[in-house]
Design goal:
This protein folds into 2 domains: 272 residues, 3-Layer(aba) Sandwich (Aminopeptidase); 114 residues, Alpha-Beta Plaits (2-Layer Sandwich), CATH 3.30.70. The chain is 34% helix and 28% strand. It has 10 helices and 16 strands. Strands 1-2-4-3-5-16-6-15 form an 8-stranded mixed sheet, with helices on both faces. Strand 1 and strand 2 form a beta hairpin. Helix 1 runs antiparallel to helix 10, helix 4 packs across helix 10 and helix 8 crosses helix 10. The longest helix is centred in the last third of the chain and has 21 residues. The radius of gyration is 24 Å and the shape is elongated. The structure holds nickel (II) ion (NI). The site of nickel (II) ion has 4 residues, from loops.
Length: 394
């Protein structure tokens, strides 16, 4: 089949996809609470006559599209959740829910997923295999993908490949990032408690001051990346939370720090985790305090299957010749899609969605975030074509 047909067909659906995205945008829902969104998705999948499964990881929806020709199974994942941000775009379709906003483009992802289902369903007689459409809850820090894996999203049928995409506002429409190998960092949550001996603010000699120890810990943690790691190996250590003391004249007994660590795994991760623990505990001890360090792995890195990424790059060059393919986009952000890609060869694509000329280039997670909707049919065609190519084993 000539896969450029998906481009023509998705452009014909453009108004519908944009209207659907705007509806989701007006009604954003936080992770594991996407009841309205999931209901709309489930109804649409039902209308296509697909076999669906709802309530996976609370609000996730899985829809199976079986082609009339035999072939492999491809999992396509689209996330549905919004963020706890007060929208400031002033758009006519701005959020109608106080303090909740689709500030990462997942409203677009969900609308794209519904369009992909429609595009592929229209060709089910020739479709050589099965498409497993996964509408995932709670991507934003709540690991909805991990919950879906625990609840069997990779079983019955087990996919041969997984694909996912993210609208990417830092790049213009027409740009597509497909990186062979590591594309996004793994993420850890850091929690530190420093216990000292509290006392009067005017008699510090009678105390072991956890606030002073905390200040030194924060500065010293910056030496892990700058002084322990090979400068050619990326990692991030960010302290983002501090809590200590309630009164101006009391040295508290305890202080708490929170933060995040990003690495691409392996020896770098081992070294960073080890040095963070050594620095925190060593400084606390030197200051007469005692530290407890908890590091919890949130997501592994997103690693695109090399061969798969290269096949998708050549598909894009063939079917969407006007697109700019970038094979070097690597970010320190993380994605729980990594859980669905751990045991199944997968590819995660970044799809440029920014348009500075229209003022649509605010960063993700910003109250002014919005993207250029012309990307919606293009991204739908891309996902449909990539899935088809993998089914055909081209
Ligand atoms: Ni996102």
């Amino acid at each position: 089949m000539n896969l450029s047909i998906f481009q023509t067909e998705s452009e014909a659906l453009a108004d519908e996809i944009i209207a659907q995205r705007r509806d989701f945008h007006r009604h954003p829902e936080l992770g594991f609470q996407e009841h309205r969104t999931a209901g709309i998705v489930a109804d649409a999948m039902n209308d296509l006559g697909l076999k669906i499964c709802t309530g996976v990881a609370e609000t996730g929806v899985i829809a199976l599209l079986k082609g009339e020709r035999p072939g492999p199974t491809i999992l396509l994942r689209f996330d549905m959740d919004a963020l706890p941000i007060q929208e400031e775009t002033g758009a006519s379709y701005a959020s109608t829910f106080d303090g909740v906003m689709h500030a990462c483009g997942h409203d677009g992802h969900t609308a794209i997923g519904m369009a992909v289902a429609k595009l592929l369903h229209g060709h089910r007689q020739e479709l050589p295999g099965t498409i497993k459409l996964v509408f995932q809850p709670a991507e934003e820090g709540l690991n909805g993908a991990e919950r879906m894996v625990e609840e069997g999203v990779l079983l019955d049928p087990t996919p041969d490949y997984t694909l996912a995409m993210h609208l990417w506002n830092g790049k213009p429409v027409g740009w597509i990032g497909v990186t062979p190998g590591t594309a996004m960092a793994g993420s850890e949550r850091l929690e530190i408690e420093i216990a000292g001996r509290g006392g009067h603010g005017a008699a510090p000699h009678q105390t072991a001051d956890p606030v002073l120890a905390t200040a030194q810990v924060i500065c010293a943690l910056q030496s892990v990346v700058s002084r322990n790691l090979d400068p050619g190996k990326p990692a991030v250590v960010s302290v983002t939370q501090i809590r200590a003391g309630d009164a101006f004249n009391i040295i508290p007994s305890r202080a708490f720090l929170g933060g995040t660590i990003r690495t691409f795994g392996g020896e770098v991760r081992d070294l960073v985790l080890q040095r963070v623990k050594e620095i925190v505990c060593g400084i606390a001890e030197a200051m007469g305090c005692e530290a407890k360090v908890k590091i919890k792995r949130l997501t592994p890195p997103v690693i695109n299957n090399q061969a798969l990424a290269i096949r998708i790059q050549s598909l894009i060059k063939r079917v969407f010749p006007e697109a700019i393919v970038d094979s070097e986009e690597v970010v320190m952000g993380s994605e729980d899609m990594a859980f669905m890609m751990e045991d199944v060869p997968g590819c995660y694509m970044f799809v440029g969605s920014g348009n500075p000329a229209k003022g649509l280039d605010a960063p993700h997670h910003n109250p002014h975030y919005d993207f250029d909707e012309v990307v919606l049919p293009k991204a739908s065609a891309l996902m449909a074509a990539a899935a088809w190519m993998l089914l055909e084993g081209e």
